[in-house]
Design goal:
Length: about 60
């Protein structure tokens, strides 16, 4: 017998049988600080630059 899949992408949970809304709390409000390594930051910068260049190429092509 096939089991029914539960969609976990919704904003409500049903742990108690009753749906309740999840509340998003900014990390800064609970005193959490996220850090990123210099290597990872360089990789993010590289990906952003490549994305911008690719978007510019697409834009050039669409103007032709």
């Amino acid at each position: 017998m096939a089991s029914k899949r539960t969609d976990h992408s919704t904003d409500s949970t049903s742990n108690t049988g009753k749906a309740r809304k999840r509340k998003t709390i900014p990390a800064s409000d609970v005193g959490v600080t996220l850090t990123i390594s210099k290597k990872a930051l360089k990789e993010v910068d590289r990906i952003q630059e490549e994305t911008i260049k690719a978007a510019q190429e697409v834009q050039k092509f669409s103007w032709r």
